[in-house]
Amino acid sequence: MPTALATLTTDEFKALLNDFYAEPIKRNKMTEEEIKDLAQRLNKKINVPLINETGEEKIFIKIILKIDTFLYDHLPNEFYDLIRSADKGIDDGEAKRLVRRLTRLANDKIDIPYLPEPAEHFVLKFVIGIVVKSARKALDFEKVRNESDDLVVPDSEEDIEKMVE
User: Fold this and answer.
1) Predicted TM-score of the model (pTM)
2) pLDDT at position 20, please?
């Protein structure tokens, strides 16, 4: 019995390759509006020493772009696209497993030397937590982002799973 993959056209296969081998400027999934909105939300929660508010938001935009690119590189696009769908998504257990693994991996791979270490951890957890929670069934990125002011970002790694509940 042929699978859906067996029916993949040449153009669809080329599109898959283009996504996989996208040049760095195209290795993201968040829109400009989403990135700016998250930067403003982070700016309310974290103070970057010696930088004015506009400068802080620009810094957060750059950090979010780093995280978005990291997620693009470490998640299949088919998964990352779940943040746009409330109809499809992952279950609670998968969300908990994924937020734990991605935040650990991101902490190893992404270094933000101009932020104190606790602030760096907060930013990574905040953005990755929103993305993973958005990929859950019955949720989407816009809804989770709009509710992110109430999102509790735990200090300890043991409680990270609570972010996606």
Assistant:
1) 0.88
2) 86
